[in-house]
Amino acid sequence: MATSTARPPTGEERDQRPLDFQTMRASTRRLLAEGAELLSLEEVETLTLRLRGHIMVTVPEVEEMAGRLPRNDTRRACARACIGEARMRMRLEPGATLPARIAHAQRLARSVNALCDHNESLGGS
Fold first, then answer.
1. Mean per-residue pLDDT for 5-30?
2. How confident is the model over 59-72, as pLDDT tens digits?
3. CA quadruple 59, 19, 27, 101: dihedral positive or negative?
4. Are 47 and 30 in contact (CB under 8 A)?
5. Across 23-33, average pLDDT
6. Taking a C-beta distance cutoff of 8 angstroms, is the pair 109, 32 a contact?
7. Number of folded domains that form the chain
8. Range of the domain at 58
9. Residue 125 contacts by C-beta under 8 Å, 6 or more apart in sequence?
């Protein structure tokens, strides 16, 4: 049996397409906009998975940009705090009821918005 010598891609080799922040923010509006439509359980579950994906692809980019700043830079500290909170929210499990699942998705949506804001303030796309 042959063994694979493939290795995971380095940061330089990763897909270099820009993140779609417009789509990310549209996802968050479905949960956070005033007068947002009521969602079914299936829609909340789908949206939760989408938001988790947005966080998973945005955190490394924001983390990399923040890491380029001096250690005492306020923007770096704020971005790193936001990253920590987003990761914490990713570890949480939603409740069993629809309102609890919506509240969980809303927290994820707020993290996505904050990560998008930090990306913008740090000079990202």
1. 72
2. 999 999 999 999 99
3. negative
4. yes
5. 92
6. yes
7. 1
8. 21-28+40-121
9. 18, 19, 21, 119
